[in-house]
Design goal:
Distance between the termini: 61 Å
Strand content: 35-45%
Largest sheet: 5 strands, antiparallel
Shape: elongated
Strand order of the largest sheet: 1-2-3-4-7
Structural class: mainly beta
Oligomer: single chain
Number of helices: 1
Order of helices and strands: EEEEEHEE
Radius of gyration: 23 Å
Number of strands: 7
Helix content: under 10%
């Protein structure tokens, strides 16, 4: 190996103790749903999905505050026009709850160097000039889908 390729960064070790929670896995999940036939051809249903908080990926030692739990309600309906054609509709996140589905950490130093912020290389958005990443908060959260409505037609052959 070429000595110039050796990384000078000192590895960081985490203490993981028995009983620590696995990242990304809520301790509790609850799912319930129903389908009801309003007529022989028309079905309506709903789903309730709840999950407790979860540890961020990268926090195997469980040192930081977890990603909060969430509850969402979905609705669905379908109507059989014929034996081969069905019209359906779906509503995701009926009450437009804002929550995260995934949490991890990013390298604030690399983000500062590569991005549009202070001391950065520019980046694609000049309006962020002067942005400074907080070195004490490298958390990043993937947001859940907001309220969404879908519809479609299914054709069976």
């Amino acid at each position: 190996m070429d000595p110039s390729e050796i990384d000078d960064e000192i590895p960081t070790c985490l203490t993981i103790r028995p009983g620590n929670r696995m990242p990304g896995v809520p301790r509790h999940r609850f799912k319930a749903g129903f389908d009801y036939k309003l007529t022989p051809k028309w079905t309506f249903g709903s789903d309730l999905i709840a999950a407790s908080d979860q540890i961020f990926y990268g926090d195997e030692g469980n040192h930081d505050r977890p990603l909060p739990g969430c509850v969402k309600v979905n609705l669905h309906t379908s109507y059989d026009v014929t034996d081969h054609i069905q019209v359906y509709g779906l509503i995701e996140n009926l009450f437009d709850q804002q929550y995260g589905v995934y949490g991890t950490y990013f390298n604030t130093e690399l983000a500062q160097e590569a991005g549009p912020g202070e001391g950065g290389s520019g980046g694609p958005d000049p309006s962020l000039k002067g942005l400074k990443y907080d070195p004490d908060n490298a958390r990043t959260i993937t947001p859940a889908i907001p309220f969404a409505a879908y519809g479609g037609v299914k054709v069976r052959f």
